[in-house]
Amino acid sequence: MARDISELVSKLTLEEKASLCSGLDFWHTKAVERLGIPSVMVSDGPHGLRKQDMKADHLGFNESIKAVCFPAGCALACSFDRDLARELGETLGDECQAQDVAVLLGPAVNIKRSPLCGRNFEYLSEDPFLASRIAASHIAGVQSKNVGTSIKHFAANNQEYRRMTSSSELDERTLREIYLAAFEEAIKEGRPDTVMCSYNRINGVFAAENERLLTKILRDEWGFSGYVMSDWDAVNNRVEGLKAGLDLEMPSSNGVTDREIVEAVRSGKLAERVLDASVARILEKVFKFADNRKERNFDLEKHDALAGRIAEESAVLLKNNGLLPLDPAKAGEVLYVGQFAKKPRYQGGGSSHINSFRVTGALEASAEIAPGVRWVEGFKTDSDAEDPALAAEALAAAKQAKAVVIFAGLPDSYESEGYDRAHMRLPENQNKLIAEIMKVRPETAVVLHNGSPVEMPWASGAAAILEAYLGGQAVGRATSRILFGLANPSGKLAESFPLKLEDTPCFIDFPGDGKTAQYKEGVFVGYRWYDKRKMDVLFPFGHGLSYTSFAYSGLKTDKTSITEGETLSVSVDVENTGKREGKETVQLYVRDTTGSAVRPVRELKGFAKVHLKPGEKKTVSFALDKRAFAWYSQELGDWYAAPGEYAVEIGRSSRDIEASVSVMWNTSQRLPFHVDLNTTIEEILADERTAAVLKPMLDKMEEMFKGGGGEAANEAITPAMINAMIANFPLRALRSFSGAGNEEIEGLLKALNQAASGR
């Protein structure tokens, strides 16, 4: 039914309007019964439904309903599959309708700035393009069921240490290209009903009262029309937050901030129209859900099957020398080691923790897939200390087996919401036993259960490594299906795996001094950092193996030159050249060769996952617009692609480029350029608008420098030295080295600025 929200707002008292801008309790909005305004429920997500009814809390101390735990964001992003993300969203939307939940709090798209961030398991990627596209599909899926989403945590929330007070200090280009970009396209494409602001300050201003962030960028630039809610207890100053664009405070303030709003309106400190706008935005989404309630079946079994399929699609085969897949007929010769084979670590701790109705371990799943697999514990998962008896038992069993699979990973205590990791290592008892088993049984595979990268000092000795991440409640079934070849791995890393923590871009600056976190690495996050510095990594962004092989051919574009307003179509053929059907993720990167700015070597600007039978070939297509070639210019206050040549690259990862084609970008747009007396000759010559103006005087200078010195002088003052000196001269130096007077210099300065401005 169509509702007149404006009329409804006009009927509310000031006190009622203020009350609607904060929660009733931990999970519900307030109702106004006399006007038929219902209370609706929001619930944690995004990889499952954590609905609490009675003793509610934010961090998961109290019980929630039995539900399905799907793979966490760290795993889902490795699927590189938009359709799968949408299917997950649709399923969660049905669950929310079945449980009368109006808004699912997710997806979480904060960039993985450091592997140590305690909440990285919930986030999607180090790359904003990948994060935004997976998030957009997830949002569209949930909201197709008339359930809202709340994309979070907006913005630059990349650590847990002092997250409620620390200030993320970063320049505008870094903010726009990396940290806002993950949100921008997800919001523009997915159109979430709500956005959740983060706890932290951004350049000194709390996100919850940051007008530039919540209104000027989010609403005015990006066209967001939903409401902004706070993260739980993120509000610093309620009235200033409301002015800035923060509509709903969560959870309940027990009436304290409601009274502050009323007093601010009555005293004239807050315009009532600002309050009215917030209330209208909230009510629009409340009624969107309330007026579209549908009975849905929360089919736990069906959704468990989906959780297993997503886990299969998301697991990344990092290394394989031919050990995998194992032969199910020889399962009796296989040894599983580790408690995680029985009881996997499949999700992280904190507000997203799901009360799973079932958890399937790999050992249990293997009993059906490949009966006869043996198991030993090997090490304690809740301790770093070695257990000599368990280790000895595992080594003895490994000697007798033909193949060993070690299930390793991070304990629950290592990564969780609320605190950051102290290091990037697995527990030492795991590292030691893995290395020792590989000595006696080289045919050893390692399955990892972790929410973010770990160092692998034993990697070179492993016959195979399968990154299962935190793969949800069915991860054991998915893992065993991959190990025994019933499923072909197709995941690709959504983040780089560095060799060691000291290699990471923000190693020196993370997590900061508690008051500020300095983002000194700028736009060079993740693979952008490692590729630019030509650093070795353990496994690169986008990497992932298969049990089959794929060949690329026929890369082409529909034009060799594009200009403003045009779109470049790119296509490439992919063929399955192996003996198994499988899926390949085609990754498209763009490389700027113009030299107009310091930029990453290449940046992901497209991806597509394609299913191929043996011998089958398909054409994959992409469309690139200006944004694919652009960087954010702080001078221009906008996205800018310099005219010149760019490389469009197709690769298997950021380090494995299969094909490349060059295209020209043509534009009349130029960066602002103002010449003053300290502008160098080199800068003036680098801009074609000003180079021609300066050339006559430059010719005069060169004549002066030629001189007629003797042999010693010519040895001391070389042409290379002269050219370098002239290039570095500021314009004011022409008074000394060209003989020009002040009037001539002032005339030249005026002519240069006229040329630079296009006049």
Describe this structure in words.
By secondary structure, the protein is of the alpha/beta class. The protein folds into four domains: about 240 residues, Glycoside hydrolase, family 3, N-terminal domain (TIM Barrel, Alpha-Beta Barrel), CATH 3.20.20.300; about 230 residues, 3-Layer(aba) Sandwich (Rossmann fold), CATH 3.40.50; about 120 residues, Immunoglobulin-like (Sandwich); about 80 residues, no CATH class. About 30% of the residues lie in helices and about 20% in strands. The chain contains 22 helices and 27 strands. A six-stranded mixed sheet has the order 10-16-15-14-11-13, with helices on one face. A hairpin with a 2-residue loop joins strand 26 and strand 27. Helix 1 crosses helix 10, helix 4 packs parallel to helix 5 and helix 18 packs antiparallel against helix 22. The longest helix has 19 residues. The chain is globular, with a radius of gyration of 29 Å. The two termini are about 55 Å apart.
